[in-house]
Amino acid sequence: MRNLLKVENLDAGYGPVQILWDVSLYVDYGEIVALLGPNGAGKTTLLKTIVGIIKPKKGTILLDNIPINGQPCEKIVDLGITLVLAEKELFPLLTVEENLLLGAFNKRARKRIEENLELVYTIFPKLKERAKQKAGSMSGGEQQMLAIGRALMSDPKLLLFDEPSAGLAPLYAKILYNSLRNLMEMKESLGILIVEQRVMHVEQLCERGYIMTNGRIVYQGEITASSQALEFFRKYLGVR
Amino acid sequence: MDIISLIFDGVILGLIFSLIASGLTLIYGLGNVLNLAHGELLVLSTVTTAVLSQLLGLPLILALLLGVIVTLLASAFLDKILLIPAYRLVGEDRIILGLYMTLALAYSLHGGLITAFPNAYLTINVPFFVIEIAWITLRSSQLIAALASFAILVSLYLFLKRTWHGMAIRSLTQNEIGAMLVGIPIKKYRLMVFIIGGLIVSLAGFIRSVVATVGPESGVEFTILGLLVCVIGGVRSISGTIFAGILTGLVYTFLIAMIGTYLAYVMLLVFVMITVLVRPQGILGERW
Amino acid sequence: MVIEEKYIKERSYVLMALAILYLVLPLVFIDMPYVIFILTQMNFYLLFAFAFNFLFGLTNQLFLSVGAFAGIGAYITGILLREGMSGPVEAVILSTLLVAGIGYLVSTLSVKRRLVVIFTGVFTLAITLVFTNLTIALVTITGGETGFRIRGVNLWILDWLPHNIKYYYLSSAILLVVTILAYYILFYTKMGYAYQCILADELTAELIGIYVQRVKTLTGLFASALLGLSGSIYGLFSQLIAPSYFAFASVDLPVQLIVILGGRGTLLGPYIGAAVITVVNELLRLLGPLTLVIYGVTLIFLLAFFRNGIIEFLKRNLAPWLF
User: Fold this and answer.
1) How far off is chain B from C67, nearest CA to CA, in Å?
2) DSSP labels, A129-154
């Protein structure tokens, strides 16, 4: 069986400090998968390793059955994985439109730049309004929209989100999750891996998920209100 | 008229400042390296050209081309080899080490050039003619220098604003991580920026030698002036530096005419010191 | 209270050996006045290097105006003496205070405006350039590019000694006092502890309650005072006060080489660095501008492989008690 993303026995870290220990997970085409866990569990490190910012020490990462571990970040983006970090990492002195256009930098995405721009403006009409505004002058919620829009412009096969609702007012978070749901309906083979700290956010969005602590996967399975996951969280982590 | 002539000289000087400083800003903004060897790269070109055309009798065009190539090779050497230890560090550590590495290279080049080629002065003589519009008199050298620098700066501006490479470079100066996430290869563009900087600064040297002789010892002076303009325009702001260069050239030329070279230089320095304290992002504010 | 108990014995021995060495050295070369001259010259550069080391090595303040500050001290003293406006002691004290004040101001501005290292560097570089240009331009006061001479300065007790030896012992005395003082502060006081914290991580130091601002500005004050003091006495020693003696290439560059070669932030580093640089300098004096090439290439290699200097290297591999 072919998964969109398959991570097997991954070890990774920063220099001599190892963060990830024997991590394995998978994401299927058309799936939104949750990755949960407390602060410092290594979730962000895992995302950065998948996209190539960090080179793994051991293990394999397969995209569409193609091994991508060890490849440079720009190659992995070109192959179809895009990461959106919690800090958004926008280009503050460039306009909204320039930020979006840069999202399509990789060769593959450039071919579909006009239709993707249409798509982004459809999902986030606010961005179209503010197309000529400097990205640094927008509010937190708008910047988050722009970050996601920019990610969409890269014509991704797999989207990685690192705590997309962090710092967002609940209303914006709701809009965000609705847009993601719309997106999944529009692009059937797209896969999404969402990192969040709380089950509450993702239980409406994801059916399946993983829980990480101390650099290891400690749970995989259903993520719903009545599932074992919540029990697990409450018992071992003391988190809701 | 005296004032008009001063204005032209000021604008031309300013354009040359912009050319030198924009390379510095690009390299600092992208690589986090303050290239204190920038002025030496300029002199490297002019000395090469002077030696090849005067000593070896090569045709000027060929000598100019080889001059540029030598500087481009030196720029590539800077990025790919000399700065390797600096690129292993991040943030302030990188800035400091990069600063010292390029400073060390600058001293080596300076010493080497003035020892090996003490008489390598470059003056490019353009066919002489004079243009008179109303009461304004322009010499051909002034006109050519102005048009050439203007053309280069406009090309640079358009390159940065309208092309994919240019946008990638601008994005890298604003957010390196963001650029990575979007698939922009940092090392490739870092080399490109060093090469572009080297190209522009060697052309600046040639343009300068059209209006005034450039000697092998001038490297330090060009570096410092470029650095000062960089700070005035905002050390990370390319468009700010381009505009600041022209402004500085104008004001500086007028000051020299009014209070003499030394005092004008002192005033320029004091102005830079005030800018550093009061408006470190550059007098034109926060811009790309 | 002692911060680091471990190596007190070895370190005290080193300090005593240093003091004895300095005391005895000129007697060895008593009939080679040129060597004494070189040694004295080295002492002054050591003092400049110490100041730079405190500023840059300990508190990360990149003052590219070492030569200029020393020069201001020298010029003030020189001019006061030339115009007969004061005796040598008062002149030196005044110079020291003035330069201390300027340094304190620069430090304070830099800290208050939160200038990053590079801007402090640009700022102080501008000061150096202003100094060089003004001393050349204001010919009537400063004698322009050729400078002016100072002769016959009365130093009471030491006066029966030949000129070079006089200034040798004077500079050595200041050097040893500074070294011992710095040693005491770094290893026996809370201030020293603060320095080591700031060196490791400035932000964390601030967060645990160290008044980083105050440490920096005080360092600026005292390091500049040292520069003013040594600069003015250097002027008396050279007997000629000219812009070229205090230019960036004459003072700042060798001083930076000394500190980086020896070891940023160490106390013994500048001693080793100065010895090496002086020897190299003398060997290269014949080569003219080629000296610059050798300096440049040497600096490149040092920075590439021995970024932390000789002392650090030795400390790591041979003698952990070095400081």
Assistant:
1) 17
2) HTTTSBGGGS-HHHHHHHHHHHHHHT
